[in-house]
Amino acid sequence: MTDTDAAITRAHHDEWARVVAALTGRFGDLDIAEDAAAEAFAMAVARWPSDGIPPNPGAWLTTTAHRKAIDRIRRENKRDDKHQQAFMIHDNSADPPDVIDDDRLRLLFTCAHPALSVDARVALTLRMIGGLTVREISRALLVSESATARRITRAKTKIAAARIPYRVPTAADLPVRVDGVLAVLYLIFNEGYLATGPDTDPIRRDLTTEAVRLIRLVHELLPDDGEVAGLLALMLLIDARRSTRVSADGELVPLADQDRGRWDRRMIDEGHALVRELLAAGFPPGRYQILAAINAVHTSAPDVRDTDWAQVVALYDLLVRVDPSPIVELNRAVAVAELDGPEVALGIVDRLDLNGYHAFHATRADLLRRLGRTTEARDAYNTAIDLAGNTAEVTHLTRRRNQLTSPPPRPDAPA
């Protein structure tokens, strides 16, 4: 990859959401904003190799995208209609004076409006805020690319037709809107934490950093919301381990094998403080608070052998009651394997309907390996490798599979 290619990739990671948000605020039309941003990045690909990388790539992209948007409006000969629509959608007049002024936060709340279906909110926000491709979103949501594209198109159409405003909602509206915002931010963070696409970096720091930045802003808006604080704590405790999650050879490093001395203690301390505050406040336990508590247990142990697995399993038991899902059960089984053994955990895993999920097969493979069922473990690893999109994870699973020893031949088997 050339320096220019690297600069364009970095600019897309860093600037996509900012450019789309700025154009949405200016023109009030998500289609215009997205198309103009895409054209600006295409022009960067064409011009930067010969003209050189601009001193301020973000400003160059925003200015170029703005011009592209104006050109499109003029071509369509609907300038007055578009400007009127922009005024109605943007409409900052309803914003209270103390609302945080952040274009990307405004865009986030627009994409997560309750008038949209949950699936549409998630897909649209991953596209507009996260800058993910339709393929990446499809892998993250475990749906087809055509279904993802339809969700995004329908969501943008609904926003325009319903004149959903481009603003942070008033204080009275926030509690209704926040659940959808948290779900989307968690998915954006997860995509950065373990990217699903085979052609992207295994860990996308731009997405995790942006998700943390946005959840901090939401926490400022709703300082007394336990789930908001819980998600902030969860992100901090996970992101603190980022530098240890991929080896120099590009292989995913499991939690048990990470160098805990390299974890970011500042982020861990902040996450632990938030978890303690949540416990002291006595909030009703919610999904993100429980996940944060689980990660607090993991990050409190100086060595994996010091992990309080009984507490981890107890927290997962609570999470199963609060947020029942097969994926929660799968993660609980991983902890059960440490407390009660791999055979008990495998019995839990084999009851789950997650055949299309790579982590299901990776977990089965590890449990079968520990039980000495080598042939079955190899088959499970192969399926996990076929389904996994993250290059670092594929490298790790391939090495684990290749380390399996063949079972000894039966005494009656032919030579």
From TrEMBL:
Which keywords accompany this UniProt record? DNA-binding, Sigma factor, Transcription, Transcription regulation
Gene3D superfamilies in the record: 1.10.1740.10, Winged helix-like DNA-binding domain superfamily/Winged helix DNA-binding domain
This one is known as: Putative RNA polymerase ECF-type sigma factor
Q: Which family does the entry's similarity section mention?
A: Belongs to the sigma-70 factor family. ECF subfamily.
Q: The RNA polymerase sigma factor 70 region 4 type domain covers which part of the protein?
A: 108-159
* DUF6596 domain mapped to chain residues: 177-277
Q: Which GO molecular function terms does the record list? A: DNA binding; sigma factor activity
Pfam families reported for this sequence? DUF6596, Sigma70_r2, Sigma70_r4_2
